[in-house]
Amino acid sequence: MNAMFRSFATFNYRTWFLGAVISNIGGWMQATAQDWVVLTELTNNDATAMGATMALQFGPPLVLVGLTGWVADRFDRRKILLTTQSTLMVLAVGVAVMLLTGIMTLPMMFGFAAAFGITNAFDAPARQAFVSDMVSMEDTSNAVALNSASFNMARLIGPAVGGVLIVVMGSGWVFIANAVTFLAMLIALLLIRKNELMPRVKSGKHGGGLAGGFRYVIHRPDLMVVFVMVFLVGAFGMNFPIFASTMALEFHQGADGYGLLSSVLAIGSLAGALLAARRDRARVRVIIASAAGFGAASVISALMPSYWSYAVVLIFVGFSTVTMLTTANGYVQTTTDAGVRGRVMALYMAVLMGSTPIGAPIAGWVADMFGPRMAITVGGVAGLLASAIGVGWMLWSGRLHRAERTRFMLTLDETRPLSVVQAMDPSLFNDRTAATTPIRLPHRKSD
Question: 364 with 211: CB under 8 angstroms?
Answer without folding.
Answer: no
